[in-house]
Amino acid sequence: MHMADALISPAVGGTMWAATAALTVYSGKKLRERMDEQKVPLMGVLGAFIFAAQMINFTIPATGSSGHLGGGMILAILLGPHAAFLTMASVLTVQALFFADGGLLALGCNIFNLGFFPCFIAYPLIYKKIAGDRPTPRRILLGAMAAGILALEMGAFGVVLETTFSGISDLPFLTFTLIMLPIHLAIGIVEGLVTTAVVTYVWKARPEVLERVTTSGSLAPLPMKNVLAGLLVVTVITGGALSWFASAHPDGLEWSMFRTSGKEELKTPDTGPYFLLGQLQDKTAILPDYGFRSPEGAESEQKEQEEPPSSEEPWPAVSAGTSVSGLVGALVTMLLAGLIGLALRRYHRRV
Amino acid sequence: MSHHIVEIQDLHYTYPDGTPALRGISLRITHGESLAIIGANGAGKSTLLRHLNGCLIPEAGTIRVGGFPLTKKTLQQVRRTVGMVFQDPDDQLFMPLVRDDVAFGPLNLGLPPEEVEERVQQALATVGAAHLTSRPPYRLSAGEKRSVAIASVLSMDPSILVMDEPSSHLDPRARRQLIELLKSFRHTKIIATHDLDMALDLCSRTAVLRDGRVAADGPTLEILQDEALLEASRLEKPLRLQGCPLCNARQNRDAG
Amino acid sequence: MGNRRHAPLAPVVLDQVFMPKIESSLFDLSYFDTLSGLDTPIHRLDPRVKVVTTMLFIVAVMSFDKYETSGLVPFVLYPVALLAVGNLPLGYLLSKVLLAAPFVFFVGIFNPFFDRAILVHLGPVGISGGWISFASILIRFILTVSAALLLVASTGIHGVCQALDKLGFPRSFTVQLLFLYRYLFVLVDEASRMTRARALRSFGTRGTGLQVVGHMIGQLLLRTLDRAQRIHAAMLCRGFDGEIRQFRPLKIRSGDILFAVGWLAAFLFMRIYDVPQWLGKLATGLVP
């Protein structure tokens, strides 16, 4: 679920980074207020633990394949939402930096998808309500599964949204969703099971570990008003940025709808999910109608429906002549870059 | 110089799960003395040591370091005087580079950066680890880790050194180097150890712990030759004092 | 290492194929440490400058049109320069880029499926927009990932944490990141010892079931918590009072500013002007 830089646009990346940065600063502040900065060595070590635990795999019965622990849930259970968020953020940072697992600009997205949802939503709203105060093996199972699955689904959906809004991948929104959500349901079940097994073990061996957290936690990890305000701001920014990009980029949603499996389908069907989505888009009009370069939306829509764009059209600004010189130029550039690199290395070795 | 006297009076401590660990320990250690604390596993050695700089709070009894009673208020002061080296150096070296670990203590004492730098260099030089300054701790051998852990405590300039099993996991050469190093220290030394030969080399005085109590306390040479005492405490004589293995074998062969 | 369940296809199969061995990841990390300890002009740059410049690089690369390919190529100059002056190994870098490629590959490969409009003709061959955008994705990927890896290889975890700290991240986050890194080896070592011990006593898939794993991880967790307590005690014994004073002051020098400004200018230039087109026209113009 780790997003790479290559698949997102600066607008999406920047927005998510802003959200993540805000959450990070907020969590840091909350820790300081509660004198929980003493937890810092614990947080670091638990972060390392998550890495280590992810290496202990287990075989899923009847499938012969393996799965392992995710981490967000367990961290939230042991540390409380704010510390867990920071810890999850650092785990993802190390993964991005040292294992190239997720891009740097995409790190904001990844921390949000894999940190915000489990720590600030799934944990307080689900796990805590079910198993927080009086854990029993059954409650732990229920809580961990429900919370884990929900968190993963939300995270997966986040990935879909971020990828789609970026407009670089052509995966249509629905297709992507229909792929991601069921897969992450399966993963969520697996992770929920592992989380349950671990938490139950800890609860049986040393229940005071779990109690320590529940007594110190507050009822709402985030002031809801601020969250809503933040989400509104994010939506507005994203919408604005998107419309700017939409005018420069061909595409995303509607265009790929035309292209989905089968050239005959040049018109959006009158029924089915695409139609509904189209209707929804028309009605809400909050999200810009991206997919077409110029504001003269309606007529160009008609025209594209009749014939697929041929190479003579200036859209999207790639033509035969420029492509050949572009290719040659690219090769020349790479050669030059390589030579410059060798020269630099030799120069610095001598110095 | 009452500064550097450690006085433990009737110390009692029970673990959270109910197991009694210390049942009335009284010891008095004077400035510059080297005391070895020996005993079986579970006799209470580590627990006792952890009381000496406030890591654990006694259930009953008092501890005085340099004339000060050990209380919450005097904790920081005491920690400046009593430097503790843990059993597992990995617990003690928690910064990314050796240099950072050794600087940690002085920085917390509020010393200016230049002085911190000087102390770091001096401490590392003392333990012979100057060449390891910029290494990450996970890349060190057991012996190197031990030395660096000691340096990280030395940089705070304590007058009392407390060590828990310092020679464990060391190869013979590293162990010898450690013994030579500790011999050169003028600090008061309190060392809990299973390494009875090291106790013989380093410490003039030994206390034997058994079931949370002091079973014996006296000159090392005396204690380590008292077979009955050692036997009762799940110990035996240091290997050095057990006689030549070759001669013993010949004797046994001849005898029967 | 890490959560590799991210491809939209049978993630569980890919899991087994792409999850690298434990020991080799540790060795890898250790190698990274060695690399970041070298002494070159790049290594000596202020870490904040390196972080910011790399981020600007990534933003510039990502701001291109989805169908842009040749315009992206000159950006390779940045990673090449870092590699060369920083004396970092090319083969190693490429292998890491390759290792991280599967996810992007699998998502990007859908593009040619969905975007079949022929955009370009190279002689008799027609290339669809999907393939072009796929190529673009791959180029972006190589550029951004190598820039990130080179950043870390030339800065090291301590430098990165220092930079983050000075850039405004909360101290609890940056210090905790340091601890994570420090204890990563210790804990992964423990975990690998456990799995090895388990492997020696389990046959086929017996013994690797859920309960066992729950116990193993649970044990590891409890030991970790104990360790955390001991570390905390060690910190307290050395005078820790809650405030972390670890980060040394950073000073920006003229060389740093030159680096940042120079590269920013280069990025802007390469973003605005399509250098390869120009070079290509030059080259094809020379050939009759």
Gap between N and C termini of chain C: 53 Å
Annotation, overall tally of beta strands of chain C: 2
- Quaternary state reads heterotrimer
Structural class assignment of chain C: mainly alpha
Report the order of strands and helices of chain C: HHHHHHHEEHHHHH
Helices of chain B, by number, come to: 11
Which descriptor suits the 3D outline of chain B?
globular
User: Low-confidence parts of chain C lasting 5 or more residues at pLDDT below 50?
Assistant: 1-20
Identify low-pLDDT runs of chain B: none
Shape of chain C: flat
Largest sheet of chain C: 2 strands, antiparallel
Number of helices of chain C: 12
| Biggest sheet: strand arrangement of chain B | 6-7-8-3-9-10
Strand order of the largest sheet of chain C: 1-2
Task: Using the CA coordinates, give the radius of gyration of chain C.
Answer: 24 Å
Average the pLDDT over all residues of chain B and give the rounded result: 88
Written account of the structure:
- The complex is a heterotrimer of chains A (351), B (256) and C (288).
- Chain A has helices at 10-33, 40-54, 72-79, 81-99, 107-132, 137-166, 173-205, 207-216, 224-248, 253-259, 272-284, 297-306, 320-350; strands at 58-59, 66-67.
- Chain A has 351 residues and is mainly α.
- Chain A has a two-stranded antiparallel ribbon with strand order 1-2.
- In chain A, helix 3 (72-79) runs antiparallel to helix 4 and helix 6 runs antiparallel to helix 7 (173-205).
- Chain B is globular, with a radius of gyration of 19 Å.
- Chain C folds into two domains: 8-30 and 170-245, no CATH class; 38-155 and 247-276, no CATH class.
- Chain C has twelve helices and two strands; from the N terminus they run H-H-H-H-H-H-H-E-E-H-H-H-H-H.
- Chain C has a two-stranded antiparallel sheet.
- Chain C is flat and about 75 Å long.
- Mean pLDDT of chain C is 79; it is low at 1-20.
- Chains in contact: A-C, B-C.
- Chains A and C meet through helix 1, helix 2, strand 1, strand 2 and helix 4 of A and helix 1, helix 2, helix 4, helix 5 and helix 6 of C.
